[in-house]
Amino acid sequence: AHGLILNYYDPRIRQLEEQINSKEGAPKDRVPLRERLQKLRVERLYYLLVEDPRRGYEEYRRLSDQANRHRWVGYGMRLLDEFLRFYNYPTRRKLFQDRGISDQQIVRESAQMWVERFHWWGQYQRSIHLAEKILAQPELFSIRLCEEEDIAVLGNARALWARAKALLSGYDSEAVREAEKMWERLPRGGKEREALARARLATSIGYLYRLGGMLSEASRWYVKAQAEFRVLKAYRDELAQVLNNLAFAYARQGRVDLARPLAHEALQIDEELGNEYSTGLTLSTLSSIARMRGHYTQAIEYAKEALELFRELEDAHGVVLAHLGLAEAQRRKAKQDIEKNRKLEEARKELEKIAEDLEGALETARGAELKDAERRLRAEQGRLQRDLGHAVRVLEGAEKSMAHYTSSARLLRDALNLDGWNPVEKADAQQDLAETLFFSGDEVGAEECLEQIKRSLDEDIVTLSEKAAPQIPNEYYLPLAKVEMTHGQIAFMHGKEAEGLQRFLQAYVYFTLFSPDAVEKDALLEYLYKRMRDLTVVQQRDLMEKVRDRAFQSQLQDKFGVNVESFVRDLGDLLGA
Q1: In the CATH scheme, what is the homologous superfamily, with its name and number, of domain 315-456?
Q2: pTM here?
Q3: I want to staple 194 with a disulfide (CB 3.0 to 4.6 A). Which of 81, 190, 210, 216 is the partner?
């Protein structure tokens, strides 16, 4: 056995690894090389087990973990078959015992490996079911509650259980509580398995808080997970996922300068490891960051790359995630053209194509029971119909646009009636509904919807007159800014320019509190210029005098700590007033 390993298998495996790692040629050209490499590794496993059961078992676990993470299902199952074929002979089983590997240890570790298999393969319901069985009846899996190493098995099961719950159903307060209880139960500074369980728990808790809209809490837990994974040094693909998730949380808080280097580090790790699933997730995050910065063409390119990878992997969650990112970037780009009154017919056709793609993504989400994705897809369909209404309004008149606005309102209401919204995302969808109602002529409904947004946000942070700005999580300022913008648009439509201008200044304050680099602030100036440029010079000067007033600006500065002087100056320069 030793001679075969040393003289036959090892040289051939090294040669194939070098060819694959050289990355010469197209990815599809490396597939036959990888298949040959996997075949040799499965054959070599048998001889490793013969030579030294402990070394062979460790190699089986390492290769199985690698196969599962890359979603090489067939290869993973061949490794499992080869191991069981050897281990299930009673005389060979005794060899393991002689090397200090008990049957109970193999049962425990196999239980954890199966939870991991289902998780990495995207079979989240099966992962949840098995994890719950392990957590409810640990003795069936030879798990000793008095042993720290065995508690790590429970920790890993709980971590992947919580993440699977989040992926399928969104934020779940019970999952957060159970994961945090397990985090406290695990010893700090333990061995590798305990540290891995803590890192995974922190990742899952962060993900749950992120889905719940509690981005500051999410970031705090992701930072803990990052620290644990950096100490471990192994599991670099999971480190990449944490960096990716932390980047997304920072970006959603408007902290783009922090988000970008983390996402690029994650992508570098993903590509070094050749992990296509994790690469797809990071590309989706980079698409989101580019979209938040207003770089829609770049966002579309990233999302298309992610979508292609997830389709190849046949991963429903990834496909839906990439579709959502792609649709939003494409829609915003088309909306930008509509607002600038250019390429209108082209923009309308693009929006109609996106509508078809979103319907296909919705079918995928329903087939995979991704309930959390369904409401987001419905909301995006609603936004799409609203923007189609804008295009048709310009091209064919207000009457023809009504069908799209009606459809938009229906879809947004359907989405809002689904469970799983966090306060910020719900407020954002409600603001979209208010905008739709406003353009359809239902101003009363729009005003009611805007008031409802304040009620839907946490009572502790909603009334700004009762709360100091630093106590409010900055992600809450984004929907509040959009509310002020819509109030301002309604005021301008009624000829109340002074009220409209003050509303837009308040929106500027909120956008700045969300992020000093918020791209939405540019849209404020552009809209105000369009609304005010046709006023008489006297009217323009009167309005500018009101917002230039030192007492008015000082009031905003004292209350929110935001200086609006530069914004007012830029508006005055645009108007020449």
Answers
A1: Tetratricopeptide repeat domain (1.25.40.10)
A2: 0.80
A3: 190
